[in-house]
Amino acid sequence: MAACRDVTRDLTLASEVPLTTYRRAQIALHLMICRHCRCHKAQLEQMQRLLQAAQAQQPEADGSMPAEVRARISDKLHER
Ligand SMILES: [Zn+2]
Description:
mainly alpha, Zinc-finger domain-containing protein
């Protein structure tokens, strides 16, 4: 049986690294019997939903500069 440590690591990485079908099946079996890992998975999903909601409310939150700031910098550069 998969160890909790491995399952939580793979659940955390799954959004960035695709898991094999075999690994997904192992994790699904583990989640059926382990409430700790189910809880971890639910927390990850909740965090992803909150991050998506925050990004939807603040499109600039992705690290890019707001359009207004970009326009001001561009104006200053073209003054010279
Ligand atoms: Zn577990």
